[in-house]
Amino acid sequence: LRAPHLAVLRSVNRTLQWLRKQNPGLWFIVATAMVAQHQYQKSRHDKFVEVDDIRSRVLDENYHISIVTTAALPWMTGTSVNPLLRAAYLAKAGKRVTLMVPWVHPLDQKLIFPAGLAFDTPLQQEEHIRKWLLERAGVRVSFELRFYPGRYDVERGSILPLGDITRFFEKDECDVAVLEEPEHLTWYHNGVNWRHRFKLVVGVVHTNYVYYAETWEKGGKMLAATMGGLNDLVCRAYCDHVIKLSDTLQQLPRAIVCNVHGVRSDFLDIGRRTASPFHRWRHGCYFLGKALWAKGHRLLFDYLKLQRQLCHKPTPIDIYGKGEDLPSIVAEAEAESFPVTFYGPTDHAGRLLHDYKIFVNPSQSEVLSTTTAEALAMGKFVIIQRHPSNAFFMQFANTLSYETPEGFLLQLRYALDHNPAPLTDAERRTLSWEGATERFLEAMGNSTLKDTLPSLGDHTARWVHQSVQKGGYFGDAMRLVSGGGPIARQSWLSQNKFRDADVLEIVAESIRISKPAAST
Known about the structure:
Structural class: alpha/beta
Largest sheet: 8 strands, mixed
Distance between the termini: 58 Å
């Protein structure tokens, strides 16, 4: 640098040091702007080169897709199953794929895995996952399966990543990253920017965390607004492109709406059998879902009350599932003498449910109902409300939609008096994972250079977030007060002996420092 330039830099540095002592708040704003502007100019050029490279390679399919999710089998939750099937069907389509899932300590496993299922090593869990994929999904493919360190947070009911999980990818796996639940994965991200580590980062948003924050017993509108702001911040900082499963989710930067999920082939096989002219529907209506008032049970009971008030013939409905609200749901059904029968949880593809003709799902809290898609695949009528979460299902002949309680009863009567139409080949393709994979690749490929290049706002978001997360003991304190729970304490990860530690070592040390809730 020339002498005049050095003099200017020294003058700016002295001014910033003086401002930091006199007015820390103003210093923070000015420093943020200067750092962001520098990174903005540098990273925008780098990102242009990387995204242009990926887009050119999409044409000849010479790129690697790394999928990261927030849960793993045998925990039977949507973010265990859907990313696993996405990885499998992408591999089946000829893509090079890595799936990365969380590894949690056996003490945490006891809190979420079915009784009697526990693993001492990631290899044991990998064997279980691959066995399920072959036996239940009928898919035999080859792809990499890796684990990152995680901890189960009892209060949130979810697994949170521990430390910088980007370091567990090999260099040749860093073309495209697919973050399943990107906000969840990056709330407490402490490390390299995903958008710097990978050439293209696509987030797939599964869960309406804003809704849960508002309806949580300790939450409310203020927490929901905070959650929405945080989700926007981290998606802006770490994602080049965002795919929302439905429009019930909050607005996010660079987001499109597309259902990129499918149903397992066994549901479609059931639909082929029920399409036979010799098939007889032996049962009427059923509802399958977690026993929570917010999942649609309240609305269903309201419709049954209206049916009684209008002096219509009562419609028996079988309800499957369990959950925290089951005792109060059963109590109200008995007190009102509703024509409902309660059963425990069951496999939706199990023989028990094959001969039901009508699936009712009045829920308004879903992002995209997996059970509705499965019922359609099995050739049943589905009765659902016209709602953004159900927009994808409106294209199917067997979808009976309503807008009012009276409309629900009219559709119920129609379904009882008629038989569903056999699925067309096009409908089967749309519901399948092959169809979902096509939609996903199209949505990923439609991201433009203009959309994916980082803006000044993106760099500011990233700088602010990492200023909090990388603050040593300050970062620990901030994670603690913001609900980090078992992953709040992370400053120890900067010690030399843990910088290159493997997943088992990191999780074991975290357990030693922060005991699981059930163990304290």
